[in-house]
Each structure stands twice: as structure tokens, then as C-alpha cells.
Design a protein that fits this description.
- The complex is a heterotrimer of chains A (497), B (111) and C (140).
- Chain A has 497 residues and is mainly α.
- In chain A, helix 7 runs antiparallel to helix 9, helix 12 runs parallel beside helix 18 and helix 14 packs antiparallel against helix 16.
- Chain B is mostly helical.
- Chain B has one domain.
- Chain B is 65% helix and 0% strand.
- Chain B is built from 3 helices and no strands.
- In chain B, helix 1 runs antiparallel to helix 2.
- The longest helix of chain B is centred in the C-terminal third of the chain and has 31 residues.
- By secondary structure, chain C is mainly alpha-helical.
- Chain C has one domain.
- In chain C, helix 1 packs antiparallel against helix 2 and helix 4 packs antiparallel against helix 5.
- Chain C is globular.
- Classes of the chains: A mainly alpha (497), B mainly alpha (111), C mainly alpha (140).
- Chains in contact: A-B, A-C, B-C.
- Chains A and C meet through helix 1 of A and helix 4 of C.
Chain lengths: 497, 111, 140
């Protein structure tokens, strides 16, 4: 038992609540929010440190002193803490970018409080050990995301947010349906207990149906084929700081939930479930990248790339070996950081040129060389060029695919990698290379530097993740080892001393 | 009794699907509300519609299972919040776009 | 607005009954049907009734509280009860209770869960009225 586990959840919630009182005072809001974001990052690292040196490498907290499986538990294993660290990094840097770009008008409409409520939901979803509690934190996260996505209230935002909310509400209703079924079959909602009970029942018949219901629900939130159609339009509307946070984090919460449930609970019929996941992974990446290739808008290309890269993460789960899962975990870390960086670049160029359409941009490299080259590094990392982080994670995934003789998915993922490179080069050629189309003298260098400051750490991180691939890959293998063997998780929750 | 309730849930989901597929904003919202109500009812039903006593220490056993009710209450609170937000959002959308027809809210692909 | 004498007369009476009942529900919630959510909804419905029968302007003069602040106070109360456990060294959200003698009421069980429920009550009243008034203010 350690109350440390509740802090990454309760701290942003507490601060978000306090910020409601200061909604009118923009500068004070910034100060409080900034300090909290830094604190949250320190806290996340401290938690990870504690968990890493814990004898079982898993810590739990029984909320309200109700012992599992009756009460709600929070469980922090290495995978969960890694995700908390990533969410804190991206949360902090997107917040700093928001300081530069969010207008006072938006801040007055509770931008910062809901920003922190969103982080509450995300961290809660990573740390919870109870399936119903996962639903609750999903809803906390989604409700905040609804507010953030509509914040500002332009015509476009209102129209697309409505669809986003309705789709998510339907998915949530099916989440409840899945919970109802699994409660009827097993009589429990604690994940560790579920893992044990589903193992005893050998995952026959109806349990497979339930597994697919959950796959549908998390797939809708994580933008898996064929449920990704809502993503590009809704991520286009909000300001860049919000798109970056959503693009980096929100879909990954869905992916985290898929990985968690399909490595812990539904693991006894992998020939059925994990093959479906693998097929979905291939289709997701292929159609996502096709969408990206066909688009000519900075933000939309990036949005479609979220979809195609979700495919890589799920591919690791579908292959289901230690190496593949390690690759998927490495890929998630790489993706969260690079995707947030790219969306912030889109925001910075939008701020400079006032445009997101690639047709109207051009020649930014001449006036803003630093911006251009930093974007180039991140784009190459996304496409998987060595020695950047994207290369090593994809390498592990493809290697494991060859080892398991899943050649179709290997070919698809290589082809998708090629197309990713193509569409990233397209952005670079049209927006940064060539003749200057929009006079950019209005924006002075100082302001551009201000916009770049929050992005530079992300770019450094992607380079660092690539250059230190060996230790990070060892760490990912450790995490994968832990989640491949659910007995550790089950023991630390149910059989404590 | 359980069979009957499951059929009711099915009917609710059918109506909800129909409503969500219509073009009016308000009907879509009512559809999502019906979806959540159907799901809540399903949780209660799947928990078993027992005839046990209220799950309080002062009553004689056998007790009925208290957990589905707790789950449903939480789910109701959440769907209350989301529905309230969705209604405000739909109203704003209607005000700004001057229409509640989703066909006209489709938007073009190159904006 | 038309002069709704009968509605206003009935409202004057019923609002207090409904508000009193909502507080009863809040307090009864620990061992009997009721609780912060139901009580809060009932209180919100009473206040909406006031708005309906007397008009936005009049009631806004009487109720000067800002609903977002009410939500925030409620959230802080609810979270605060969670922290009691942390301070004592028990897990977050641990609940404590004891029996107290209160004049006129006799021995009463008081729990920290009640504070949590009061927080929920505030949040529900705040959210319900905030969302209803957002739409209503636009129309007026």
C-alpha cells in the first residue's frame, strides 16, 4: 500500500479545481498550471523509481481500504508508470506551448482546468486496476476532451465536436455493455481477479464475444480500423496545443487499454483474438497511411498518421512475443513524443503563416531555418530513419514479425513505412522548401523562438531515444516481460501478505 | 424476468440506433441517451434480478448483490454529465449554424 | 412575461418543501435510499422552478453565487475527505465514522462520507443549473 499512487491522479484534479476560481486571471492561471505540470513530471519519475526498485516491480493501493477484489485498486507496474511519465512529459510541454498560443478568451472558458482534468483521466486510466474504474477514468478524460475540443467555439469546432461526442458516447455505452456481460459471466470487475477467472473458464464461447466487444470499444477510442473515421476531422479543429496533446495521448489511452486487457485478461485464445488484432493492425496502418498520402493539409496529414501508427502498436500485440511487445512499447514512447512535436510544429507554422494548407505555404526554411530543420528531424524520426527513435522500434516489430513468420504484416508495415516517408517529405517539400509564398516578416524571430522552446525538448528526446536505443530497448524488454507474464500482476493484487 | 428485460434492452438499442441515424440533432441526442439507458438496464439485469433483501447489515439475508446498483448509479451520473454537455453543445451548434439538420452540418472535405 | 399568479403562489410553497426534502435525501443517503446525487438533482429542480416562475432577472438578483465556483467548492470538499485518510496514514478515500450525541436529535452516526456526499450535492446542483442557465441566458 502506498498513497503515492493516487498523487498523479489527484494532483491535476486538485489543481484543475483550484484553477476554476482563477478563470478570469490568465497570468495567475499560467503560473499555477506551469508549476503543477513540472511537479507532476517529477512525481511521475519518483513513482517510476519507486516501482522499479520495488521487489515485485508492482505497487498497489487499495482505495478506501477495501481489499481487492471487492474494492477498487490502483496498480502501478512498469508499463503503467512508463505511460504516466510519457503523459506528464507531453502534458507539460503542450501546456508550455499553450501559454504562448492560447488566447485570454479561451483561457476564460476554463481551458486550463479542463486541461488538468484531462490529465487526471489519462493518468487514472493508466493506473487503475479495475475495469469499471477504467470506464470512469475514460469518461473523465473524454468529458474534458469534449470541452477542450470545442473550446473557442468556431463554427468548424462546434460542428465536428458534436460528431466526436456522439461517437464516443455510443462507444461508452458499449463499454458498459461489455462490463455487464463480463460481470454476468465472472462476477467480478477487478482486472487481476478477472484474469484468474477467465483463465479458469479457459476463455470459451461467450468470453470470446466479450473480448471482441472490448476490442470494439477500445478500438473506437484508439482509432483502429474500421473505427477511425472520426479522428482526422475532430483533431483538425482545436488549437495546436490541444491537437498535440490529443494526438500524442488520447488514442494511446485506448491502445494502452487494449494492450492491458489482451495481455492480462483475454490471453487464453490467442489464435482467435490476437489474429483478429493483427489483421486489424495491418488494415489500420494501410488505410491510415493512404489517407495521409491523399491529403494536402499539414494537420490532416498528421492526423491520418496517428491512425497508421496506431497500427504498429497494435501489431506488436498481435504478434504477441516478448520482442514484439517490447517493440510496441518502444513505439508508443517514440510515437507520443514525436507526434506531439509534429503537431506543435503544425501549430507553430500556422501561427507564422496563418495557414495549414500545404498549397499556400512554401519556403519557410529560408526565413525560419531552425524550425525547418527541427521539423525535418522529427519527420524523419516518424518515418523511421536511423539513428532516430522511429527506426529501432519499427526494426524490433518487423524482426519479431519475421521470426514468427507473419510475412504479410511485415510487408504491409514496410510499405506503410515507405509511404510515411513520402508524406513526411511532402510536408517538408511544400511547406519548408521552395519559393516563399507568404510574407512572414510580420512574425519576428523572438516570437518564433518562444514557440520553439517547448518543442525543442521533444526533438532532443526523440534523438536521445534513438541514440540510446540499447538501454531503452533493454528496459522495454523488461516491461514486455512483465506484462507477458500476468501472474506477477495477479499475485501482487490478490495475494499480498 | 431476466429474459423480458434483455428483450427490453434489445428494443431500446434498436430504437436508439434508429434515432442516432436520423438527421435532427435533438433526435441524435435522444438516441445516445437511449443507448446509455439500455446499457444501464443491461448492467442491472446481468447482475441478476434477485429477490434477496436490501444489502444492509440490519436486514436478514440472503441479500441481493449491491454492486450492479453502485455501477449503474456511477454510470447514470456520468451519462447525466455528458448529456447535459451534449445538449448545450447542440444548442450552440444550432444557434451558430442556424440549422439542426446534420446533412447541412456535413461540411466540405477541404476546409 | 405573463403574470402567473397561481404558478408563483404554488412555487413559493413548494420550493421550500422540495429543498427540505432534498436535504433529507442528502442526509438519509448513508443507510437508506437517497444520497448526494439525488438530493442535488432535487435541489436543482427546485431552483429551476424558481427561475421558471419568477423569471431570470429576479432570481439572478437573489442567487448571486456563481455556479462554476459552486462546482469547484463541491469538488474540493469531495477530494478533501479523500485526503483525511492520507493524513492519518490509511489509503486514500478511507472512510471514518463515529457516534455523537447531538441535543434534540439524540445519538447520531456521523461519517466522513457525509462530507463527500455534500460535495457531490454541490457539484450536481452546480452542473445542472450551469448547463440549464447557459442555454436559458442565450434566449433571454
Amino acid at each position: 500500500m502506498s498513497n503515492l499512487l493516487i498523487l498523479p491522479i489527484i494532483l491535476p484534479m486538485l489543481v484543475g479545481t483550484i484553477l476554476i476560481f482563477f478563470a478570469k486571471n490568465h497570468s495567475l492561471q499560467r503560473v499555477i498550471a506551469g508549476i503543477t505540470a513540472v511537479l507532476l513530471l517529477i512525481l511521475a519519475f519518483y513513482l517510476a523509481h519507486e516501482v522499479y526498485y520495488h521487489p515485485q516491480q508492482t505497487m498497489i493501493l487499495e482505495l478506501g481500504n477495501w481489499s481487492p477484489p471487492f474494492g477498487i485498486v490502483l496498480v502501478a507496474d512498469m508499463f503503467a508508470t512508463l505511460m504516466v511519465i510519457l503523459s506528464s512529459i507531453v502534458g507539460m510541454l503542450c501546456l508550455f506551448f499553450a501559454f504562448k498560443t492560447i488566447e485570454t478568451e479561451r483561457a476564460k472558458h476554463y481551458f486550463y482546468p479542463f486541461y488538468f482534468f484531462l490529465l487526471t483521466g489519462v493518468n487514472g486510466a493508466f493506473l487503475t486496476g479495475d475495469l469499471f474504474n477504467l470506464f470512469v477514468f475514460f469518461e473523465v478524460m473524454l468529458l474534458s476532451s469534449y470541452v477542450l475540443i470545442v473550446n473557442g467555439g468556431t463554427n468548424y469546432q462546434l460542428r465536428e465536436s458534436f460528431k466526436y461526442v456522439v461517437i464516443n458516447m455510443i462507444a461508452s455505452a458499449f463499454f458498459l455493455v461489455g462490463l455487464a456481460y463480463i460481470y454476468a459471466v465472472t462476477g467480478t470487475l477487478n482486472m487481476a481477479d478477472l484474469a484468474e477467472k477467465v483463465g479458469v473458464l479457459e476463455q470459451q464461447g461467450v468470453l470470446n464475444v466479450i473480448a471482441i466487444v472490448f476490442l470494439f470499444v477500445f478500438g473506437a477510442k484508439g482509432a483502429l480500423f474500421p473505427l477511425y473515421f472520426w479522428l482526422p476531422n475532430s483533431y483538425y479543429g482545436p488549437p495546436a496545443a490541444v491537437s498535440a496533446l490529443f494526438g500524442g495521448l488520447l488514442t494511446k489511452v485506448g491502445i494502452y487499454a487494449i494492450i492491458r486487457t489482451f495481455t492480462l485478461i483475454f490471453t487464453h485464445n490467442t489464435g482467435f483474438t490476437h489474429d483478429i488484432i493483427l489483421a486489424l493492425a495491418g488494415l489500420t496502418m494501410f488505410f491510415g497511411v493512404l489517407g495521409a498520402v491523399s491529403q494536402f493539409d499539414f494537420k490532416r496529414i498528421l492526423s491520418y498518421h496517428i491512425i497508421s501508427q496506431v497500427g504498429y502498436m497494435v501489431m506488436g500485440l498481435g504478434i504477441y512475443t516478448q520482442l514484439a511487445l517490447a517493440g510496441a512499447i518502444y513505439y508508443i514512447a517514440h510515437h507520443i513524443i514525436v507526434k506531439a512535436a509534429l503537431f506543435l510544429f503544425a501549430g507553430a507554422t500556422e501561427k507564422i503563416t496563418g495557414e495549414t494548407s500545404l498549397y499556400k505555404m512554401g519556403g519557410l526554411l529560408r526565413s525560419h531555418p531552425l524550425l525547418g530543420w527541427l521539423f525535418f528531424i522529427s519527420a524523419m524520426s516518424l518515418a523511421g530513419i536511423p539513428p532516430l527513435s522511429g527506426f529501432f522500434s519499427k526494426f524490433a516489430l518487423i524482426l519479431s514479425g519475421i521470426q514468427e513468420e507473419r510475412y504479410v504484416i511485415v510487408v504491409v508495415s514496410l510499405l506503410v513505412g515507405l509511404l510515411t516517408l513520402f508524406s513526411m517529405m511532402k510536408i517538408f517539400m511544400y511547406a519548408f522548401w521552395g519559393e516563399q509564398k507568404i510574407p512572414t516578416e510580420k512574425v519576428d524571430k523572438k516570437e518564433t523562438m518562444g514557440l520553439l522552446k517547448p518543442i525543442i525538448p521533444l526533438v532532443i528526446l526523440t534523438i536521445a531515444l534513438g541514440l540510446s536505443a540499447e538501454p531503452i530497448f533493454q528496459f522495454s524488454l523488461g516491461v514486455a516481460d512483465q506484462i507477458m507474464d500476468p501472474s506477477n500482476y495477479i499475485d501482487s493484487v490478490l495475494n499480498q501478505d | 424476468m431476466e429474459i423480458l428485460m434483455v428483450v427490453v434492452v434489445g428494443v431500446m438499442f434498436t430504437i436508439a440506433t434508429y434515432m442516432v441515424l436520423t438527421k435532427s440533432l435533438l433526435r441524435v441526442i435522444l438516441g445516445t441517451v437511449l443507448y446509455s439507458h439500455g446499457a444501464h438496464l443491461l448492467i442491472l439485469t446481468m447482475g441478476g434480478l434477485g429477490t434477496g433483501a436490501a444489502p444492509l447489515l440490519s436486514t436478514e439475508g440472503p441479500h441481493s448483490d449491491p454492486l450492479p446498483q453502485a455501477l449503474v448509479l456511477t454510470a447514470i451520473v456520468i451519462s447525466f454529465g455528458v448529456t447535459a454537455f451534449l445538449l448545450v453543445l447542440a444548442y450552440r451548434t444550432y444557434k451558430q449554424h442556424k440549422t439542426d439538420d446534420l446533412d447541412q452540418l456535413r461540411g466540405s472535405s477541404d476546409e | 412575461m405573463k403574470n402567473n399568479v397561481s404558478l408563483q403562489t404554488v412555487t413559493r410553497l413548494t420550493v421550500f418543501i422540495v429543498l427540505a426534502f432534498s436535504i433529507y435525501l442528502l442526509l438519509a443517503g448513508h443507510h437508506a435510499p437517497g444520497g448526494g446525487f439525488i438530493g442535488g438533482l432535487m435541489a436543482a429542480s427546485a431552483i429551476v422552478l424558481l427561475y421558471l416562475s419568477f423569471g431570470m432577472k429576479k432570481i439572478s438578483k437573489v442567487f448571486t453565487i456563481s455556479y462554476p465556483y459552486l462546482i469547484a467548492v463541491g469538488l474540493l470538499l469531495a477530494m478533501g475527505t479523500g485526503f483525511i485518510g492520507v493524513l492519518v496514514g490509511d489509503p486514500f478515500l478511507t472512510q471514518y465514522y463515529d457516534y455523537f450525541y447531538i441535543p434534540f436529535l439524540g445519538t447520531v452516526e456521523l461519517t466522513t462520507a457525509l462530507i463527500f456526499d455534500i460535495g457531490v450535492y454541490f457539484v450536481v446542483v452546480g452542473v445542472a443549473l450551469f448547463s440549464i442557465l447557459t442555454i436559458a441566458e442565450d434566449d433571454a
